[in-house]
Each structure stands twice: as structure tokens, then as C-alpha cells.
């Protein structure tokens, strides 16, 4: 990799992220090991300085698909026979694509995997001098009391005890970061869904999202390797969740909301339900149907981003 001058950390400049680590100012270099990019190795300002939107989701293929969807929606063209480049190239932990001011990356499964990606991408965007960023998580989930294929916009992420708190253990102490999502952004996304008459194709709802650190027992499934509760106890818990406004379960919203709230950055979380957990534990929808479901959030977020970029 070539060497570029490190980004000049001008202290008069408005920081993109609040509560930023002061030690970053004194690091001679900062290498993002999981992205195969670095402050001194790449001209981050030239590569990422225009980024305004960051879209994250679990899998690399889905994010590549979303990048192509966004490219077409914005009317950008690439020469026939070529495809969008994966910016992270030789590392296969995460993939990253860029379409104009929109960056796409896959975060893998669970909060620890997402936390690594957010750390490295947020530092990268800081060194690149980006401002006025909006982050989105586009995911899949288990719905609670909603039909498969329903798109859910998260109001607030809650943990397995239904607390709106992202907990980190730092230097032997517990740190809690709040997990409320941006209320205006939720309204804007719901308004866009209305204007696009999305409800003719599928339902869009909003509510709380339970973020589990596991897919099986952590999500009250009875088909995991262990299960010390009855089917009735499971249903009882899911119904309690539903009564308290929880409409879906997934595995990253706490970290996404906790870290971005702490950095005081605008963000939204939009997931599609692959099943209704009041009916099933196993995901039995066909591969084709799941692919179709997974693209539903693209329509709403894509249109939000398009309107912002095109100023309409
Ligand atoms: C949704 O789907 C994945 C588990 O299958 C996980 O990343 C999540 O949040
Ligand atoms: N992702 C989850 O975390 N849970 C589900 O039930 C489906 C997708």
C-alpha cells in the first residue's frame, strides 16, 4: 500500500462524531486491520471525503446488491462488463462499496462484529473529514405478531431484559449507552413509505426491537441445542414482549443505536421480518422469497437517500 500524508487533524474543524477518543490526535498512524485501509496508507479524504450516508447490513452480498440498487436509483453508470469494486479487497471479514456519497458495508452477525466495523468506519470517516452523516442498518429479523415480509422501523432497541441500554464493560466497569432512534428520521421514513404507497406491496410498522446476543435461547427459540423452558413459557414471553411494544428481534440494534447515539450521529434501523415468532422458530421461506424480503428495506431507505441527494 502507498503512503499518504496523515489527515491534518485541524482542531478548529467541527468533529463529525462527538465523544471522540482524544488519543487519536496523537497516533502517528491508525491502521484499520479489518478493512485493510489506514490513515497513512490511503488518501482517506480523497477516497471517502464526500460520504454522507453509511448503509450497513449483515451480509456482503446484500450490501453489494443495495449498492447496485442505489447506483441505478441515482442514475449513476459504470462501464458495461464492470462491477462495483469491493474497497476492502483482500480482507474477507467485511466488504465495502461506495456509490457517490453513499458507503455500504456488511457487519456480520452480532454486536461484537458490528462494533469492530463501526469503530473502524467511524474513525475512517473522521480522518476523511466527513460531516453531516446519516447511518442506516438494513437487516433481517424475526417479527413478533407481524406477517413474514413486514418491514419494521425501530423506535428503540432493547436488551433481553427489555432495557433501552447498550452495555459495555470497560476497565472493569459497566458503561451504559442509550438506544433511542432518531424520532424525526422515523417519521420521515414512514412518510416516504406512505407517499410511495408501499402498503400496496407490504406492511411497514414501527416499534421496539429486542436485540439478542444469540439466535436461539437468546431469542426464546425452542429449536436450539439447549432449551430449559416449555413452548408455553416461550409464547408467554413473546406475548409479553409484544404487549410492551416489541415487534421484532435481531442481533445488532443495541450496539448500532448505542454507539451512534454516543457519537451524536443520526441513524435509522430498518429490518424485514422473515417469520412471525408467534407462529414459528424455523425459517422455512424459500431462498427466492427471502431474497425478495431482504430487498424491501432498500425501497424506503433508497428513496430517503435519493431525495436527500437530489434535494427533493
Ligand atoms: C438478523 O439475522 C442474523 C441472524 O440470522 C443477525 O445478524 C440478525 O440481526
Ligand atoms: N434474524 C434474527 O436474528 N432472528 C430471526 O428470527 C430472523 C433473523
TrEMBL record:
<dbReference type="GO" id="GO:0009166">
    <property type="term" value="P:nucleotide catabolic process"/>
</dbReference>
<feature type="domain" description="Nucleoside phosphorylase">
    <location>
        <begin position="52"/>
        <end position="276"/>
    </location>
</feature>
<feature type="binding site">
    <location>
        <begin position="137"/>
        <end position="140"/>
    </location>
    <ligand>
        <name>phosphate</name>
    </ligand>
</feature>
<keyword id="KW-0328">Glycosyltransferase</keyword>
<protein>
    <submittedName>
        <fullName>Uridine phosphorylase 1</fullName>
        <ecNumber>2.4.2.3</ecNumber>
    </submittedName>
</protein>
<dbReference type="GO" id="GO:0005829">
    <property type="term" value="C:cytosol"/>
</dbReference>
<keyword id="KW-0808">Transferase</keyword>
<feature type="binding site">
    <location>
        <position position="221"/>
    </location>
    <ligand>
        <name>substrate</name>
    </ligand>
</feature>
<dbReference type="GO" id="GO:0004850">
    <property type="term" value="F:uridine phosphorylase activity"/>
</dbReference>
<dbReference type="InterPro" id="IPR035994">
    <property type="entry name" value="Nucleoside_phosphorylase_sf"/>
</dbReference>
<dbReference type="InterPro" id="IPR010059">
    <property type="entry name" value="Uridine_phosphorylase_euk"/>
</dbReference>
<comment type="similarity">
    <text>Belongs to the PNP/UDP phosphorylase family.</text>
</comment>
<dbReference type="Pfam" id="PF01048">
    <property type="entry name" value="PNP_UDP_1"/>
</dbReference>
<feature type="binding site">
    <location>
        <position position="219"/>
    </location>
    <ligand>
        <name>substrate</name>
    </ligand>
</feature>
<dbReference type="GO" id="GO:0006218">
    <property type="term" value="P:uridine catabolic process"/>
</dbReference>
<dbReference type="InterPro" id="IPR000845">
    <property type="entry name" value="Nucleoside_phosphorylase_d"/>
</dbReference>
<feature type="binding site">
    <location>
        <position position="93"/>
    </location>
    <ligand>
        <name>phosphate</name>
    </ligand>
</feature>
